[in-house]
Amino acid sequence: MLSYNRYGIHISTGSACSLGYAEIPRSIFPFISNKEEGKRYIRFSFSHLTTEQDILTIIEVSIKIFNPIKEERIHNEKKINWQGTS
Predict the structure, then answer these.
(1) DSSP code of residue 26
(2) Three-state SS for 43?
(3) 8 — alpha (psi -120 to 50), left (phi > 0) or beta?
(4) Alpha helices of the chain — where are they, by DSSP H?
(5) Are residues 73 and 40 in contact, defined by beta-carbon separation less than 8 angstroms?
(6) Bridge partners of 12?
(7) CB-based contact 52:24 (threshold 8 Å)
(8) Which residues, 6+ apart, have CB-to-CB distance to 25 below 8 Å?
(9) pLDDT digits (tens, 9 = 90+) for 2-37
(10) What is the pLDDT of residues 55-77, one digit of tens each?
């Protein structure tokens, strides 16, 4: 969440109705197979004041945040696969 805050984007890991609760919102259950997956989602709230540029900024920032994570995972998987072979 701090990564988004650095760009002035505020996100949540829960529903708007459960502010302060650590529970996974029931609305996410149809999209997950277990509670661990439910801990890996974030929520963006939009309103009639949200502009197209706001959404484009969220997309750009998300790419900046998640691409390095994705690259690190790929690198680690290759490293594990390489170490596992003789």
Answers:
(1) G
(2) strand
(3) left
(4) 2-5, 35-38, 52-84
(5) no
(6) 43
(7) no
(8) 14, 15, 17, 18
(9) 789 999 998 877 665 555 556 777 778 888 888 888
(10) 999 999 999 999 988 888 888 88
